[in-house]
Amino acid sequence: MIDFPETWEFGRTISRAMDSGLDWIIINFDPFFDAITIFVLRGILLPLEKFLLWIPWWGVIGVVVLIAFKINGRKIAFGTALGMMLLGGIGLWDLAMSTLAIVLASTLLAIGLGMPLGIFGAKNDRFDGVMRPILDGMQTMPSFVYLIPALMLLGLGKVPAVMATVIYSIPPIIRLTNLGIRQVDPEVIEAARAFGSTGKQILLKVQIPMAKPTIMAGVNQTIMMALAMVVIASMIGAKTIGTEVLNGIARLEVGRGFIGGVGIVIMAIIIDRISQGLAKPRRVRSE
Q1: d(CA 264, CA 277)
Q2: What DSSP string runs through the chain?
Q3: What average pLDDT does range 240-263 have in this prediction?
Q4: For residue 149, what are the CA distances in angstroms to 7, 138, 164, 169?
Q5: How far is 242 from 250, CA to CA, in rounded Å?
Q6: Which fold has domain 8-286?
């Protein structure tokens, strides 16, 4: 009467069914996952990482500082320069560039997949109703869980790290794209229709531009979640700044783990300030 009846438990049945289903997917769709690996690794990730490591350190700092200055002004540009100099000073420059490559690749894929889903959800209430509980589950699921299927389907390395990061970071861009499109004033849409605009023109020239601040806020959240997941993904072979934290934990080297944590914080602040600036209207940025 006190303990829950064992005959009513079905968690193990679900677990075994999922394991069997995953084994079936691995056996029957191996060429498909090989194609994903080749596309992500050779098409996006490796060229981006090689490019970032090929550029001289002062060139990378100059470009990032210029971007920060154009978007957010002198204060943020100065802080960005100081932060990137600190990354090099504490010996994390190469790892920071590898981390940035994974974050950018994951963010591009998440935005490319998430924005169309968000737009379709804004246009279709039934699809939105189906997506909401799925997104709730994706955002509340422990991040370590995403590493398991990515590891089994794609093996060790950077590709499973990118795919797990995409799945983990995609909900904000879907939600906020949906919200931004829905918040566009209906009278503006009716005015566009009255002038003979097609549905595609209304979407591209009215709804998306007016929803841009909300969409860019979703991009900001996607980038930050991608950065958080990339650190965890270092557990499956992705060489990032998170590797230093893991090595510090494994070898009980407090200083090494602390330095890795500081590097992560610096990258997060720089990326957050720049991406937040993109979400602000131009008048606010200029002020």
Answers
A1: 20
A2: --SPPGGG--HHHHHHHHHHHHHHHHHHSHHHHHHHHHIIIIIIIHHHHHHHHHS-HHHHHHHHHHHHHHHH-HHHHHHHHHHHHHHHHTT-HHHHHHHHHHHHHHHHHHHHHHHHHHHHHHH-HHHHHHHHHHHHHHHHS-GGGGHHHHHHHH-SSHHHHHHHHHHHHHHHHHHHHHHHHHTS-HHHHHHHHHTT--HHHHIIIIIHHHTHHHHHHHHHHHHHHHHHHHHHHGGGT--SHHHHHHHHHHTT-HHHHHHHHHHHHHHHHHHHHHHHHHHS-HHHHH-
A3: 83
A4: 29, 14, 8, 16
A5: 12
A6: MetI-like fold (1.10.3720)
How far is Cα 268 from Cα 282, in angstroms, rounded to an integer?
A: 23
Handedness of CA 71, 273, 146, 4 (dihedral sign): negative
Give dist(CA 66, CA 127) in Å, integer: 41
Q: Mean of the pLDDT values across residues 51-61?
A: 85
Candidates 182, 277, 178, 260; CA nearest to 223 is: 277
Cα 258 to Cα 42: distance, rounded to the nearest angstrom: 33
Position of tokens 């930050």? 224
pTM: 0.81
If pLDDT is split at 50, 70 and 90, which confidence band does 281 have?
A: low
Q: Chain-wide mean pLDDT for the chain?
A: 82
Both tokens of 58, joined, read 């002062």
Distance CA 226, CA 236 (A): 15
**Counting every residue, how long is the chain?**
287
Structure tokens at 207: 């709804």
Q: What are phi and psi of 231, to 5 degrees?
A: -65, -45
